[in-house]
Structures are given as C-alpha cells and as structure tokens.
Design goal:
Blueprint: H1 4-16, H2 33-43, H3 58-66, H4 80-92, H5 98-109, H6 114-143, H7 154-158, H8 163-192
Helix pairs in contact: 1-6, 1-8, 4-6, 6-8
C-alpha cells in the first residue's frame, strides 16, 4: 500500500508535467464533430481517471448547445472558439452545474459581433490557461510543503482590466483548484482503496 506522502509526491510530479492546451495548440481550421471529439480525447486524456472514461461525447456537445452555453456549429463545423469553450466546459462541469456555466459565459456569448465574441472568449481562455499553470504549480508546491498561503493566480486576475472578465477568471481559477484537488482525492482513493 502506498503511503500518503508517496501518493502526494506522485501526484505532484504528475501535475508538474501536465501540458495544458495552449491557444497555439488549438487547430486554426474548423472541425467536424468527430474531429472535435478526437481532438478533445487526445488533448484532455491526462484528466481521465480510468482509460475507459469519456472526455466529451457528441450528445454532451449537443446538450451544451441546447442549453445555450455553447454556440451552434456553423455548417456542422466547430471553430477555435468552440474548442476553447469546450475545454473550459470540460473542466467546469465537474464542479459547476450546466446552468452556472451558462451564467459564467453569458457575457461573452451574448456579444452580437462574432469577431468580438471570439476575441473575448480567447481572452478568457488565455486567462484560463494561465490560471491552470499557476494552480498546478501552486498545488505541486503545496504537496511538497513549498507553497506559501497567498492566493495563486491573483496577479493574472489583477492584470485583466475588464471587470467582468476578471470576475470570470476568478470563478475559473477557483474551479480549476477545486477540480485539481478533486483529482488528488481520486488519486488517493485509487491508491488506498
């Protein structure tokens, strides 16, 4: 049986090697549904607890569209903006309800100008990626007793001039931390039981 320190050390090492999906990693061409699910399965495989777990299914994506937390595809194709939203939704759905996710993204999705909407979502996603990196570094340091008590990601949020976007980043940062701590709890459960 693994000791608690071994579980924590293994998880800290895993967190330190996590590759988040950067904006540059997201395809610049629009994708069909099967290509979207393949991209998501490959890009988010690290977050699977078990090999058989599904990242996102066609049904999930269609339900997000019906719930209006995700814009419909254009001519059955999904853009970079769609992929950024799906990545964030994937992380958020473990912690927040679909309704809460819709509220969180309402400001960006309500923007009538498609170009401005895409720009807002990209800004939010860039903050999301920065918060992921900050959270993972903080939690890895915390696991190794190297973390201080300051709120990680605060500089990322304060660097955002738009008040609404700063609020969105705060929620994203808290969800990333909660989700990461949930995964640590799952690792401990798997190791001990």
């Amino acid at each position: 049986m693994n000791t608690f320190n071994e579980v924590i050390e293994r998880y800290a090492a895993q967190i330190r090697t996590v590759d988040v999906i950067e904006i540059a990693d997201i395809p610049t061409i629009d994708l069909y549904m099967d290509q979207v699910t393949t991209f998501m399965d490959k890009g988010l495989a690290r977050y699977k607890r078990n090999e058989t777990d599904k990242i996102l299914t066609k049904t999930m994506i269609n339900n997000y569209t019906k719930a209006k937390i995700f814009p419909p595809p254009v001519k059955k194709k999904y853009s970079r903006t769609h992929l950024m939203l799906l990545i964030m939704i994937y992380h958020l759905k473990a912690i927040l309800s679909i309704k809460d996710i819709g509220v969180l993204f309402h400001v960006a999705l309500a923007e009538p100008d498609a170009e401005k909407q895409a720009q807002q979502i990209e800004t939010i996603y860039a903050g999301f990626v920065a918060l992921q990196k900050s959270t993972y570094a903080y939690l890895a340091n915390m696991a190794e007793n190297k973390a201080d008590d300051s709120f990680y990601g605060k500089d990322i949020m304060l660097g955002c001039e738009d008040r609404e976007l700063r609020r969105i980043l705060l929620v994203l940062g808290l969800v990333i931390r909660a989700n990461t701590e949930k995964q640590l709890a799952e690792h401990a459960l798997d190791a001990y039981f």
